[in-house]
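> @MW can you paste both from yesterday?
MW: sure, first one:
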Amino acid sequence: METLIAVMTCAAYRDRADAQRATWVKDIPAGQGYRFFVGQGGPAAADTIVLDVPDDYRHFTLKVQAMRRWAYDRGYEAVCKIDDDCYVRPERLLAAVPVGLDYVGRTRGPSGNKPARYNSGFCYWMSRRAIEALLDVPWDRDVAEDRWAANELRKQGIRATLDSRYVVSWSLRNSVRDEEGPCRDNDVIAACEFEPQMMRQVHDEFVNRRESEATNLRPCGADPCEEGVLS
């Protein structure tokens, strides 16, 4: 199965993408397809596709749609969409490629007065069938690309499937469990909300420290009980 690891980033967060390149992206096996995706004016690099869409957040749904079109046109059978604040263990990710499932990730409840449960946008898989179902759907201006995609898929009979190995460490409201991110002694595939310095620390801990030495590294940010941090 031809799979693509698709990391969505932009000019404003180039430091995040560079932190990913310096950490877990280096561990992607040779021959495995991966690309960073940016919009117009975004930073070009050998591993980066510049899409013909705006690079700002308001048009992020269109950017992800353009990435899907790019992947579909090149024959990929499954795509894992990843945000640039996400730390991933690629060996675990590739061992978890969904077979016979169309839409897999960290499932959360409906939001925005829309009915569908959806997979959080930081890291989720879509099959070629799911991607094809979205390609020609008009955008309703929803800036939450994960919510938009799930609700459009629901109309076509495709619903979110939960894999609890994708986590948001700070989440107290919708997460399946509260983890510190991928560690040697757990099975977490990916966790999000890491700024570049913490991305490097988490990677260093995964690669170099024994389980007995592990600390409880968590994403940088405010106290999880503060307004706006829960997700």
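MW: second:
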Amino acid sequence: MIKSESQSRSSAGGILILLLAAGSSVDAEVPGYQVETIAQINVSTFLRGASPGGHLVGSMVINGQQQAFVATSTDGVVMLPLPPGYNSADAFDANSAGTVVGTVSDAGFPQDVGEPAVWSRNAQGTYEITIPQQFASLPSPLGGNLAIQGGQIVGIDEAGTLIGWSRFFGFSGGPTTLFSMSAAPIELRPLGFDATVRDLSDHNGIIVGDQLRMDLDTGVVEDLGVPNPPEGPNFAFGIAYAVNDTGRSVIAGNTTSSIPTENWLTLYHDPADGYHRLNPSELPQRFVGFYDLNNLGDIASSTGIWFEAEQQLVHGLDTLLTDEFSNWNVGVGYINDRREVYTGAFDTTTGTSWLVRLVPASDRIFVTGFEPDKPAR
């Protein structure tokens, strides 16, 4: 069973597979998709991320505890090991080498009380887990030092950079931290990134969180400011949830509405010309949704997928499936630079749930010529 509610790709909650998508009419220029199955699933499954190379990661509820997994078309689902004495885990991101990052806990609820974790393949092809070095304590925003009790690694890039945050004792979060497999961690608040990191780009070392964007190579931190696109409404603040190699970011914009069910709208921020609404006709949401984007500028959110080259927003990927896959219900998922979408799906003919890759059925879906702003790290 795949959960069918909406969660953010936050460092605490990860993202959730959206199984059922609303239908929508689609312009013919946006090509169709074919469904390729990766693995059948029969337990509650949370999909948290996908690597550029096609590694899906997340957690499955087994015997009442969340357990981290990685899935590929070659190996299917592989459950990731726990350290001795630990009972739960969640995986948030992976790179094309198959290195997976997340959190592990010895008291259940890995997102709430877990420690940062890295899973790497050994020479035998199996996974081993490492818990990186952590701070003993850090200066607290309330004054004085507070003990650090765990945290999470929420992102890994193609070069193996590990980014996450360290949890203050008694709190549900803490400062952004650059972790290492073999060295001491580095706190990024003294460097100007006073925010909780949400995402790391694949190649160029760009991170985002709250209204900040930072280039890890240059140390430059940019305040994106409060969203104020020309297509209203007014916004109180924004939270950056995803970033690509060009620095384009997907933002959850908090509106100034006093109505509790009308708090959030999806925007993107482009380094060249600032904020834009993803869809001016989008209805405000009560909760923050799901966000991802590729280096072509395509954006996936709980609203749907924005295809940058075609300048079209598709509200439901079901509407893009070719005729032979009309029996599938698919959710919005992670979109890579080949415009493949990794997500969860339900086969209505067999009544089974799957992790799948949606493959473009036409060459028109591909956009060539993307060049990062700087060389890969």
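> thanks! DSSP finds one helix and 30 strands in the chain.
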